[in-house]
Amino acid sequence: MPHTKIIGWTGIACLVIILCITAGVSFGSSPIPAKTVWQIVGNQFVPDWFEPTWSPGRESIVWDVRFPRVVLAALVGAGLAVVGAVLQAVTRNPLADPHLLGVSSGGALGAIIALLHSGLIFGLVTVPLFAFAGALLATFAVMGVSRYAGAAADRLVLSGVAIAFVATALGNLAIFLADPRAAHTVIFWMLGGLGLAQWSHLLYPAIALFGSLAFLIVRSREINALAMGDETAATFGISVVRFRATLFVVTALLTGVMVAFSGAIGFVGLLVPHFVRLVFGSDNVRVIPISAVFGAVILVLADIVARTIMAPEDMPIGVVTGLVGGVTFILLLRRR
Predict the structure, then answer these.
(1) What pLDDT, in 10s, does the model give residues 148-178?
(2) Residues 6+ apart with CB under 8 A from 301
(3) Which pTM value belongs to this model?
(4) Domain assignment of residue 95, given as a range
(5) Separation between Cα atoms, residue 325 and residue 336, nearest integer Å
């Protein structure tokens, strides 16, 4: 793709994300005009540029509550969509995604153990580390069970469902054995939610997303070769076993970090890559970065629905993505 087109599409993607973030911060139980939103944001960086015409309460809503939440939604949506795109290519299975393959359940199990049993022994990074470990163990457990049961593509999904059930059961056991007064905190990870977003927390998912995305984009042509089959990849000089294991580690890391801060959110990683391929083709050079943009946009829009449909109460975003994703998936099945 020519550099001018890349720059053009990048500009369009940034504009779309900015518009969605603006809508996400503006809409809610207490609507705030978009102009006021960006004046408040600008005032945080250059106080002398804008004369405050808004109340301290409105400023707190924009800067302390909604803006970090919307940014987290964009990061998580992008991360889950990228993971789904890579897993579908690597496993050559259109149903592969972090939720169906049990990776999200493994990450949630790790987060539950960190919160209820281990304590924050490594500080703020304890939950992401445990979530990454759980997601990585779940990933390799799925591959091991799939290899034991047979190499068919449907066996991979069935193995993922089985591991997801096991991880969920172990998570429920960890909750049962924990202090009942602390157990309510894990509802966040069981249902999916963004209400705990804070500026100090956003650094970790941002580093995980942009670091993983840069690696995957650089290696996207090798992912294309792997998607065409192990023999084809080997003819290009790719060490298939090592490269596939590396991709699993990267996707597990990305999933674990996202789950640690958002809970288990389904269907984003499954559906977004399919829509991208329908429009832009199957070349992962395009699919991976465009999936990141679409995933960010879709989860920001889902968060707007979650915050407004039962205002002033927040519906768990996992409920919204599950309902919309399930219906959309049924329509996809009918079409294809």
Answers:
(1) 766 555 567 778 888 888 988 998 888 888 8
(2) 20, 23, 24
(3) 0.86
(4) 3-335
(5) 16
